[in-house]
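Supplementary notes for students who missed Thursday's class. We covered one full example, reproduced here. Read the sequence, then the structure, then the short commentary at the end.
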Amino acid sequence: MTKKPLAWIVDSTAYISKELILHPDFFSVPLNIHFGEKQFVDGIDLTPTQLYQKIKDTDDVPKTSQPSPGDFAELFKKVGEQYEQAIAIHLSGKLSGTLAASKAGAEIADFPVTFIDSLSLSYGITGMIERGMEMQDSGVPIPEIIAQLEKMPGTMHNYILIGKLDQLYKGGRMSGVQFFIGSLLKIKPIVQITNEGGLQAIEKVRSEKKALQYLIDKVVEGHHAGRRKIRIMHGNVMDQANHLKNLILEQVPDLEVEIGDISSVLAVHGGEGTLAVLWFD
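Structure (token representation):
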């Protein structure tokens, strides 16, 4: 049997669009979500909507964990039966050990994989996959595809409005004092994945209206710098995402704006109500 030339691999922190789900050469390895002693597989045992309800219904603090090298090895062995090689793009190595586990799994499976640390997550991974697939469809040789994709990490602009302070606090991402003060003052924290793949707070605003305006201002700046396409990602708040889209288009009507939802794993940390705007250079 003649093998296909290239498979595309991601983890479930990526935004997986309907187009990617239907793509025959696309594969995703899910992370895990834990409530006490119970473990759920992201996107399979637990959807984002189910996760939000479970958070409301239980006092257990949800945690996340990476797939094991064995999980990746199982996929790579399966993929190796049909493909000559793969490109795997994963969430930032500074935020998770998923990339390291994937590399270990490829060694176990003895399958040739090119690994790229996205230095990001969500659409930061998806945008790279989409770009790579576009180049492949245009007949670009695989070595050149890899070379171009390796230039993309660290070039994504992103501004993330955290939905629920209590979820950020439960997940251990802020101290009790910060949570108390933030709740008292109704602070809306805006964070960012840095060009090095870390997470940092970049702004604190005191109302949702001001927070949305902050995101809009950043998008307008990006548009003035030449960007013509952005993504809005949301945590179970499609109406708010559409509202933000409309506010953006009032100021930059020629901008292409697409909306997607964050995965269950990211919802554990960001919480319901999270809104983010993202685009690549």
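Commentary. DSSP finds eleven helices and 13 strands in the chain. The two ends are 41 Å apart (CA to CA). If anything here is unclear, bring it to office hours.
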